[in-house]
Request: fold
Amino acid sequence: MLGRYFFITFRYLWSAAAVLILAGGTAWSIDLHLPDRSFQGDMVVGQVTPGSALWVNGTPWTTGPRGHFILGVPRDLKRDLLVKARSKNETTSHTIQILKYDWHVQHIDGLAKNYVNPGKNERTRIEADRQKIGSVRRAQPYVLPFFLKKGFIMPVKGRISGIFGSQRVLNGEPRSPHSGLDIAAPLGTPAISPADGVIRLVVEDSFLMGNVLMIDHGLGVSSIFIHLDSVVVSEGDLVHQGDVVVRVGQTGRATGPHLHWGVSVGSIPVDPMRLIGKKFIRPIR
Ligand SMILES: [Zn+2]
Reply:
């Protein structure tokens, strides 16, 4: 009888000690994992204690179920990013120093005049396409961290004919920077999904982009493939990394067959090349 009493007491004390250790230690403290420095055009994966509230330069930020969150560093950002987190009554913050990237200039000549200086009808089409893609991006559910485990691979093999962020000079006229990576490949070459995801949008015959595919990789991150010859998947399809999704083409404003692959965090384009082979998951206590 006495032995049993001691046993129960011992068990109770053990649990009480465990609770005290947790309360004073890690269980109630807040963790925030982020790099100290990033370049313009980077995609940054952070992790915070799940359930924390988060702000980036004062703007409330959404986190995934395990506390993951993604930041896109704009190409021309010239200030640092201050990330603040709050969990229960505790707050913490972290500053990411943003480093300047050495952007290239790319000259493209021989484009049809209406692709460099589009007329009124063409501008209306361009704006409608832009609106459509924007609204699909905004409607993406945030909580599917498809890409975190396996990361990204190249969607097609070929010569890199255009890199992200280059200042574009079209027929001698300066235009917006290039928002993706161009990979030259023969017409009809199959291209694969660079990461797991859901097909969110298929657009046929847009003025600048031709045939378009958009893949939602979760946590606000999406891929866009443009100038396609054809799309072999449908909106709503779940795709895995390595699944064939399109065939390379030269529809829209293109001077030869190539795949334009863009990656965005929300509406901010980031450099796809820097994602290849990168490991994103960091364990949190
Ligand atoms: Zn391109």
